[in-house]
Amino acid sequence: MRFDILTLFPEMFNGPLNASILKRAQEAGLIQIGLHNIRDWAQDKHHLTDDYPYSGGAGMVMKPEPLYHAIQAVKAQGRERFGEDARAGDTEPDPPVILLSPQGRVFSQSVARELSRHRRLILVCGHYEGVDERVCQLAITDQISIGDYVLTGGELAAMVVVDAVSRLIPGVLGDEASAEEESFAGGLLEYPQYTRPPEFMGLKVPEVLLSGNHAEIQRWRRYQSLGRTWARRPDLLARAPLTPEERLWLARLEAGEVQVPQAGGCWPPPERRSRSKAGNQKPPQAVPPAGDPGREQGPPDSQGA
């Protein structure tokens, strides 16, 4: 997969894109990253890429000519670079041209997965007060925002998109299960992680993780993910693929009838903890482990944490 990034500040990308997983992926030929300075397509001797907005207003606006011509040139370079593949019918005619903008759709794991299906992406880093609207009408096919806050430009957002999408390219992570089990991959936050030693400063690794019982471990991880998502990002639960049993358990968790054995002191937040216990006539009952005959099913115990 190839990423072409159009920016006024290509030097910003030198560190993040040339280290760790992204560096190894490029060395292995799994991804390519091209940086293009929009100023190279400016039409005056000062290489100006911005101007004052019509009718006044704060800040400057990116001029249409340099940005439009940069996009067209990079698209043409791509057609030439992938010419043989195109003749063989093995590439899309034109890649998505994505403007990183606070007005775009919000970036998420599902959007990253969607973008990973393309062979090429062109990422346009906005700057100043934005870009001339005519460029959006003529050349931009999509707009993406990484959140409801203000950044100096689209460069950091482009780095986020490149990193998240690259991780979904086969071979980039080495272990394909890593991408499948990470937070948001299944619509939920990831379960707690532990490594050696088995005890640190009086805190022990949950016994279920040392048991060797793979079914119980998977079940523990699933319910820890459910509990963490309920506590930290309850908005995700509405879209997560859940079984009827899991939805019933979450409803009982919300009512304070059951609880997740905590695997650490960082959750749930106080407001979620107090909400779950509000109005209870009796303390919440710990959920019995799987397979206990005659008892309700729920998350396995998390002893020693």
Walk me through this protein's architecture.
There is one protein chain. With 305 residues, the chain is an alpha/beta fold. The chain has two domains: 2-177, SPOUT methyltransferase, trefoil knot domain (Alpha/beta knot, 3-Layer(aba) Sandwich), CATH 3.40.1280.10; 199-286, Trp Operon Repressor, Chain A. The chain has helices spanning 20-27, 64-81, 83-87, 109-115, 133-138, 155-166, 176-181, 207-210, 214-232, 244-255, 270-277; strands spanning 2-7, 32-37, 50-51, 61-62, 97-106, 120-125, 142-145, 199-200, 203-204, 258-259, 285-286. The chain has a five-stranded parallel β-sheet with strand order 2-1-6-5-7. A two-stranded antiparallel ribbon has the order 3-4. Helix 9 (214-232) packs across helix 10. The longest helix is centred in the last third of the chain and has 19 residues, at 214-232. The two termini are 43 Å apart. Residues 278-297 and 301-305 have low confidence and may be disordered.
Structural class: alpha/beta
Along the chain, the helix and strand elements come as: EHEEEHHEHEHEHHEEHHHEHE
CATH topology call of the largest domain: Alpha/beta knot
Radius of gyration: 25 Å
CATH homologous superfamily classification of the largest domain: SPOUT methyltransferase, trefoil knot domain
Share of helix among residues?
25-40%
Number of domains: 2
- Identify low-pLDDT runs: 278-297, 301-305
* Strand fraction: 5-15%
Q: Which CATH class of the largest domain applies here? A: Alpha Beta
Largest sheet: 5 strands, parallel
* End-to-end CA span: 43 Å
